[in-house]
Amino acid sequence: MPEVAAAFRGPIDLHTHSSASDGTETPYNVVRSASEAGLGTLALTDHDSTAGWPSASEAARDYELTLIPGMEMSTRLEYTSVHLLSYLFDPVDAALLAETEKIRDARLTRARQIVDRISADYDLTWEDVVAQTEEGATVGRPHIADALVAKGYVPTRSDAFEGILHWRAGYFQPHYAPTPLRGVELVVAAGGVPVLAHPGIGPRERVIPEKNLAALVDAGLFGLEIDHRQNSPEGKQRLRELAATFGLAITGSSDYHGEGKANRLGENTTRPEVLEALIERASGWQPVYGAVTRTL
Ligand code: AMP
Ligand code: FE
Ligand code: FE
Ligand code: ZN
């Protein structure tokens, strides 16, 4: 009997967003764009949602790419928002599902509150934001930004983030999110593999404190996303020291949001040995091997 061995190809990009959250392309089209960009493997990691998995999986088969189904979970350490990439977990795990639903609900309430505040000073309604949001998508500031662009208040999404949506402008409000430790515990319990997303944003001293990181490692944290355009050079240096200390894997990714952000697919990539170890660690879900290598 010929044996069929599943294999992934490079380049590997482990962090992308679709219209299931705040990316501008459908999940299917994110995979198509990845194929056009010459990637061999990509992970779809929408914020707090797995809604894009089915159509991204279909596209992975159509375009013969390997898809790593994933999510970027919102967590919070006191006042700092901490994003947790999670890969190959069981998408119907009851505890994880309950928590992500709670976060999405909180995001919705919070987005309405931000829009209420903005509407005191600008002609912006909740309907304007809904018009920019795919049905069922995880709502965030990017959708409010798009509504502000549509209304002509700012030229681009990024300008909205630097202006009206920046916390300094006074309209901002945080939303409920579990602690990073709770996030790691939930992802691991669902058979998934957690990686801290862009943990080096800002100056070196703002990188996650070592004692908090140690607790995440004890709970099963797999790696740190070090090669990401938003990590500062000093942050990256500190993170490499921490990865060595704790024996953590290092990943690299684009954090592609379609036209919503400047980040381009494949601008940072992950080494194949790291992905191999990640797949080995996972027990909740399988990669979708759109291209299957046949050996003997
Ligand atoms: P929120 O999670 O609602 O507070 O919004 C922050 C999210 O906006 C992050 O996930 C960013 O990746 C995303 N985002 C999308 N486009 C942009 C942009 N052009 N500038 C800044 N953040 C952006
Ligand atoms: Fe985002
Ligand atoms: Fe993020
Ligand atoms: Zn992201």
Report on the structure:
With 296 residues, the protein is an alpha/beta fold. It has two domains: 4-99 and 176-295, TIM Barrel (Alpha-Beta Barrel), CATH 3.20.20; 105-169, DNA polymerase, domain 1 (Orthogonal Bundle). Helix content is 37%, strand content 17%. The protein contains ten helices and ten strands. The chain has helices at residues 27-36, 53-62, 94-119, 126-130, 141-150, 157-162, 180-189, 210-218, 233-246, 272-281; strands spanning 4-6, 12-13, 41-47, 66-77, 80-87, 193-196, 223-227, 249-252, 288-289, 292-294. Strands 2, 3, 4, 5, 6, 7, 8 and 9 form an eight-stranded mixed beta sheet that branches. A two-stranded antiparallel sheet has the order 1-10. Strand 2 (12-13), helix 1 (27-36) and strand 3 (41-47) form a beta-alpha-beta unit. Helix 1 packs parallel to helix 2 (53-62). The chain is globular and about 55 Å long. The mean pLDDT is 95. The structure holds adenosine monophosphate, fe (iii) ion (2 copies) and zinc ion (ZN). Residues 22, 140-142, 157-158, 161, 257, 260-261 line the site of adenosine monophosphate.
Please describe the topology of this protein.
Layout: E1 4-6, E2 12-13, H1 27-36, E3 41-47, H2 53-62, E4 66-77, E5 80-87, H3 94-119, H4 126-130, H5 141-150, H6 157-162, H7 180-189, E6 193-196, H8 210-218, E7 223-227, H9 233-246, E8 249-252, H10 272-281, E9 288-289, E10 292-294
Helix pairs in contact: 1-2
Short précis:
The protein is an alpha/beta fold. Helices cover 37% and strands 17% of the residues.
Keyword list:
single chain, alpha/beta, TIM Barrel, DNA polymerase, domain 1, eight-stranded mixed β-sheet, 10 helices, binds adenosine monophosphate, binds fe (iii) ion
